[in-house]
Amino acid sequence: MSNKVLEKFITGYLYIILCLFPLVYVHYYADILYVKYYFYVGCSIVLIVMAAVYGMVCFYKQKSSSAALEEKKTAALTDRWKRVSVPEKLMLGYLLIAAISTFQSDYFYESFWGNEGRLTGLFLTILYVVCFLLIGRCGDVKVRLIDAFLFVGNLVCLFGITDYFQMDILGFKENMVPDQLLMFTSTIGNINIYTVVAAMFTAVAMILFIAEKHLGKKLYYYATFIICLSALIMGHSDNAYLSILALFGLSPLYLFQYRWGIKGYGISAASLFTVIWGIHFISEIVPQASGLWGVIAPIAELKILPLIAAALWFILGVAMWADRKNKKEEVSPWWRRGWIALIAAVVILVIYILYDCNVAGNAEKYGPIQSYVVFDDRWGTNRGFIWRAAMESYQKFPWYRKLVGFGPDTFGILTFQKYRPEAIRLFGEIYDSPHNEYIQYLVTVGAAGLILYVSAVFATIKRVWKVQKKSPLAMAILFALLCYWTQAFVNINIPISAVIMWTLWGCVMAICRKQE
After folding, report:
1. Which of 88, 135, 263, 302 has its CA 20 to 30 A from that of 504?
2. b/e map of 462-474 (b: 16 or more CB within 10 Å)?
3. From first to last of its 516 residues, what are the pLDDT tens digits of the chain?
4. Alpha-carbon span 34 to 47, nearest angstrom
5. What distance in Å separates the CA atoms of residue 212 and residue 200, rounded to the nearest whole number?
6. What is the helix, strand, coil percentage profile of the chain, to 5?
7. ∠ CA 501-504-510 to the nearest 5 degrees?
8. Neighbours of 46 (CB within 10 A)
9. Burial letters 378-408, b for 16+ CB under 10 A, else e
10. Residue 405 and residue 441: Cα distance in Å, rounded?
11. Cβ contact 156:22 at 8 Å
C-alpha cells in the first residue's frame, strides 16, 4: 500500500467535513449542535480507525525485514519526528496538558466529555488534534477542494441572507418563540457562530479572488466574496465586524507586496462600502428586512456613504487605467511600511480612547460608540460580567490549577455556585462559557494550555508566511483562520465553527508541508 491510499482517505474526509458538515441538520435548530457534533465525531473516528489499520498493514508488511533494514527504519522514524513542524509539536503539547487537566480535575467525567459545557472536553480535543495531525502530515489539499468549500459557503450564506429578509424558505423557524427568531440563522445556528463561519468563507474567497489570474475563476471567487460578505454583514452579530476588521486590516501586510494585491484590495474595499450601502438601501424598501444594527448601522445610515463608495470606485478606476502599462508585479516596500504605521496609529488611538473612557472618565463624549469602549459588567452583551467572574475564579486556583486548569469545558461547573445566581438575577441568563476562547483556555486548561495553543497559532502564521509567495491558497486559508482567532476574543468554542477551523488549520499545515 502506498501513501496515496491514506492520502485518498483524508481527501474524502476533507470533502465530507468542509462540504457536507456545514449543511447537516435533522430537527432544524432544536438539536443542531448535537447533530453536527455526532456527525463530526463519527467521521473523525472512521478516519482515525482507517489510518490505524493502514499503519498496521504497512508495519506487518515490513516486519520480516533484516536487522540492517530495521536500523534504517529507526533512523527514518527519528528523521520523520524532526520533520514534524513546530505548530504540530506545540499542538501535541497542548493535548498532553488537556489530558493532565482532565485527570487532575474534580470532575473527570465532565472534563472528558464536556457535557456540562459545549461538548469540547478531552474526547473532542483528542479528535481535533489527531485529525489536525493526520491532515497536516498526510493530506494533500487541492484547489478544487477549496472551490467546493466555497460553493457550500455560497449555499450557507444565501440561506442566511433569506433569513435576513425573514423568508424562512426551509421552515427552520416555524416552531420558534419570537424572541429567538433573529438569534439563529442558516444551517449553522446561533448568529455568533454563523458569522464566524461566514467570515471564514469571506476571507478565503477574497484572497483567492485577488490572487487568481484566470478570469472565469476570478469572477467565481468575487461573486462568492460578495455573497459571503453580504451574509456576514446581515448576520446581526457585532462579532462579525471584528472579522471584517481583521481581514481588511491585516491582509495588506500580504497583498501590498504586489501590484495585483494593491489593485485587488482596492476592489475589495470599494466592494465593502458598496455592499453596506446596498444592504441598507434594500432594507429601506423591503418591509420584511430585519435591518442592520450594532456598530455597522451608523455607517450604513451615513448620507454620504453612496458618495464614498462611488469615489472609491472612481479613484480605483483612474489609478488602474493610469497603471495599465506597468508590468512589474512587486512594488515599493513603503506600501507595507505605510500600512504598518497606520496599524500602529490605530492601536495607539484605541488605547487612548480606552484610557479616556475607563480611567479618565470621559466616556460621554464618545456618543454612539460609548457602549463599545466602556468596560463594565454589561459590556459586550454582559461579557464584562462573565469575564470578571472567570478571572476572579482563576485567581483563587491553587498553583497547579493555575498551570493546568479546572478541566476542559468545565467553566459552567466552576461558576455554578457563586456566579450563576447573580447572572440570573442581573441578566436572566446562564453562562457555561466566558464567551472568550482565550479566557476559556486559561481557566479550563490553565496557563500552560493557553500558552501552547497561542504559541501554535503564532507558529502557524510564521510557517505559512514562509511559503506565501508559492501558495496564495495557504494565505487564503490563513486569513480565514485569522478571522476565527480574532472573533475568538468574544466568541464561544463550539463544535460547529471550531470543527471548520480545526479542519482548515490541518489543511494549511498540509499545504505548507507540500511547499516545503
Report:
1. 263
2. ebbeebeeebbbb
3. 457 889 999 999 999 999 999 999 999 999 999 999 999 999 999 999 999 998 888 777 766 555 545 555 555 556 666 788 999 999 999 999 999 999 999 999 999 999 999 999 999 999 999 999 999 999 999 999 999 999 999 999 999 999 999 999 999 998 888 878 889 999 999 999 999 999 999 999 999 999 999 999 999 999 999 999 999 999 988 888 899 999 999 999 999 999 999 999 999 999 999 999 999 999 999 988 988 877 888 889 999 999 999 999 999 999 999 988 887 888 999 999 999 999 999 999 999 998 988 888 887 877 777 778 888 877 877 888 899 999 999 999 999 999 999 999 999 999 888 888 887 877 777 788 899 999 999 999 999 999 999 999 999 999 999 999 899 999 999 999 999 999 999 998 999 999 999 999 999 999 999 998
4. 20
5. 18
6. 75, 0, 25
7. 145
8. 14
9. ebbbbbebbbbbbeebbeebeeebbbbbbbb
10. 8
11. yes
Which grid coordinates belong to 291? 435591518
Residue among 504, 472, 467, 466 at smallest CA distance from 135? 504
Cβ pair 153, 215 in contact under 8 A: no
Cα–Cα distance between 441 and 449 in angstroms, integer?
Answer: 7
- Exposed / middle / buried, residue 186 (Cβ in 10 Å: 0-12, 13-18, 19+): buried
What DSSP state is assigned to residue 263?
Answer: H
Instruction: Give the rounded distance of the alpha carbon of 508 from its chain centre.
Output: 13
Q: How far is CA 43 from CA 15, 40, 215, 307, 411, in A?
A: 11, 5, 36, 50, 28
Q: How far apart are the first and last CA of the chain?
A: 24
